[in-house]
Amino acid sequence: MASRNPRQTRERLLQTAFREIHAHGFQGMRVDEVLRRSGLQKGAFYHHFGSKTELGYAVLEEQIRPLLESVWLAPLAEIEDPVEEFPHLLDNLGERIPPAMREHGCPLNNLAQEMASQDEGFRQRIAQLFEAWVEGFEAMFERAKTGGYVRNNIDSWAVARFMIAALEGCIGIFKVEQSPEQWRACRTQIAVYLATLRPRDC
Amino acid sequence: MASRNPRQTRERLLQTAFREIHAHGFQGMRVDEVLRRSGLQKGAFYHHFGSKTELGYAVLEEQIRPLLESVWLAPLAEIEDPVEEFPHLLDNLGERIPPAMREHGCPLNNLAQEMASQDEGFRQRIAQLFEAWVEGFEAMFERAKTGGYVRNNIDSWAVARFMIAALEGCIGIFKVEQSPEQWRACRTQIAVYLATLRPRDC
DNA sequence: ATTCAAACAAACCGGTTGGTCTGTTTATGG
DNA sequence: CCATAAACAGACCAACCGGTTTGTTTGAAT
Description:
2 copies of one chain form a homodimer.
Chain A (H helix, E strand, L loop, with lengths): L5 H23 L2 H8 L3 H7 L3 H26 L4 H10 L1 H4 L2 H6 L2 H9 L4 H28 L8 H21 L3 H16 L7
Helix pairs in contact in A: 1-2, 1-4, 1-8, 4-9, 5-11, 8-9, 9-10, 10-11
The structure holds a DNA duplex.
């Protein structure tokens, strides 16, 4: 047995819990199953986390937040022309994420839909993450404004919100019908929408 | 006590279960709580339904399907010009639905996100309902084509799918942040997208 | 080396949960 | 009026599940 390593134990619990929550939802996740899969015991769990709910919060902050950062915020920050580049980001999204994401969708949105109206603690933390995501989009559009890639009079905040909504909606629909056609349709229409942001449309 | 009325008993169970599922998700819904709220007993429940899962299926078919019909399919069928009329439909959506919908979002999408990857029976039935919804949108756009309200070369199927995705996404985001501003933003951007379907844009 | 708190292991617990079983009442057709 | 099955009532149950408790081991400071 590996010698004691609190940080690693905690991380192991978080990672396993993240997978279980992603696969079965927070309510469907069982503490015992997380323990079984991580090869740890109750003692370890309740030493690191006060309750199942606190574990859920920690998963949001320490697992989902970094994922949001690497999968979305970082790539968004490198985009100059959203109208042309963002659809490409969607095209190779499949390669930038683990296969579990295709089956179970967006971990953040899953938790949002399940827990937002159940637990205020979840709702606030989820709102915070969405806010960060919105800011990522907003920054991209503002940059695109100064670059002349989009009109100057667009409401970056509203557009950002809608982009996230459309994205989550598409991912959600994809969960029900995992057809490439489905995804292509959404990707294409998002591109159509983005094109409306171009200056002097007519 | 009202005399026996099997059909009414079943309906009472279905309605109560629908509310509980809508409020807490299918996994979060408790059979005992449905019984308590409906004032019935275990015997009645397991006489009408084989299991909790079968109840879930019945709620989909007998509660959510009619709701989809009245809230969306019927209004969509009366739209001639989607570009102008659909945004109005979104504006008075709040008045056409019970207040519980604002708090807990779309019952169909909730079940979709929670159960699609958990239970194949759910997934199929949900896919069927989405399909009916898509057909409603498709029919609307095809009608609009012949009416000259939208271009003839648009992919009605893809547009329909995207409309539903965007809608569900907006509703989902709204669940996390119940601000009117949030909803207005989505409504406006959907209108922007719809405008791209107009003939001779330029 | 000793001490002491952190980091666990593992048995244990009480309430919950979906589901069953047995018995009783009600409607209905003959 | 009677027979029969449908339509329940309500006690019961085993498994589950989050959480607690108690005891033990480990590592690091003194």
